[in-house]
Specification:
Oligomer: single chain
Order of helices and strands: HHHHEEHH
Strand content: under 5%
Strand order of the largest sheet: 1-2
Largest sheet: 2 strands, antiparallel
Number of strands: 2
Shape: elongated
Number of helices: 6
Distance between the termini: 25 Å
Length: 245
Amino acid sequence: MGCYDCCIRCIGAVPYPSLVATLLFYAGMALFCGCGHEALSQTEVLVETYFARNVQDFVVMASFIKYFQFVIYGLASFFFLYGILLLAEGFYTTSAVKQTFGEFRSTHCGRCLSLTFIIVTYILAFIWLAVFAFTAIPVFFLFNMEQTCHNINILAETTPSINQHGWICMDARQYGLLPWNAMPGKACGMTLASICKTSEFHVTYDLYIAAFAGAGITLLALFLYLAATTYNYAVLRFLGRKGVR
């Protein structure tokens, strides 16, 4: 076999859908874990600075943030290893499909392993769908806060009276960020508008958007994995029933 034929054979054995899914998978997890971790740190600074005067009111949320940051560390490690396993499984199943009639033979154990990856990936995709929805909550909160500040600025430009926009508030307690007895717990009027102009707010908002996008990219990668592995497994099952093992 010549060098050209060997290269063509190697290129043909590359699982391109799994490779693309792996790249998306790692890109999405990098965005989600990196930006999510930093967004939680910025949230702690933002709430502690502008919404909570008493440290005791902020203890629960601070512990909650630290817990989720450790969860992010675990997710990053687990999904890094799982992405490698999925890519390796993609190489195996693609080679088994494309070289079944050659010297390579798929085995019953290999097909069971492929089915196991399909089931685990399906469960992870279902769980990650919930994570994707949960990631939208802080984006929704900060979007509402930005829109409220925009309305305050419009009222401030059109009406000279402070009372016209002083009643417009954002209450962090309504979103579960602080207990109901936290003081002040909310920001109103021009105080709220000034918060929206700070770098902490804009950085936190952008980081949560990036984390939300990363969660969506990761979910897309899991669906691509499911499509590729399910197709390859179905072909292997078909060939197995035809007697090609």
